[in-house]
Amino acid sequence: KAGVTQTPRYLIKTRGQQVTLSCSPISGHRSVSWYQQTPGQGLQFLFEYFSETQRNKGNFPGRFSGRQFSNSRSEMNVSTLELGDSALYLCASSNTDPEKLFFGSGTQLSVL
Amino acid sequence: AQSVTQPDIHITVSEGASLELRCNYSYGATPYLFWYVQSPGQGLQLLLKYFSGDTLVQGIKGFEAEFKRSQSSFNLRKPSVHWSDAAEYFCAVQSYNTDKLIFGTGTRLQVFP
Predict the structure, then answer these.
(1) Which of B18, B19, B62, B102 is most buried by a 10 A CB count?
(2) Any CB–CB contact under 8 A between A106 and chain B?
(3) pLDDT for A6
(4) d(CA A89, CA A82)
């Protein structure tokens, strides 16, 4: 069974640009969560999608958005990038239980 | 507010030595607690979890953790560390508002031969 796949692995953008990250969950998993990981803040929850609907949202500005498609694949978009958005963005999928969370390897975003 | 504190940012041990990584939580009721490990360039892997029952929890890779309600702690232990254990370790609590995981800031473990 393939794991959680995140693309691209690395991204370099400049301030003001926008970026889209992709996450393909484990087959059969309907929940996809996104986390931002930075050295100082650790992992911060961004949002969760379940059956194409946003079910939970963390404390991030509206520049951060996401969506989920009918095949459970999810995308995360960040508009008007800021230097502070540089981070590792992790996607995790699960079936129904949050304790059965499987993480992808992440997308490392660098904003210059 | 629910939170998790990992007081040690960085720990260095010799291979074969014992290990204890500290985790303290703030939570209003019986918490669901987790330990994850992240190897360089990888996502997070679940080591073990505590929901209820026996306060000593066994996990993968020879790790165990003990839930101590009186100390609001859930420390991770391993009797003999291997070089391959070098990684970053995260403690987490499940939020009772959203069911999502609230992570600590992590402890980076370095292992010397």
Answers:
(1) B102
(2) yes
(3) 97
(4) 15
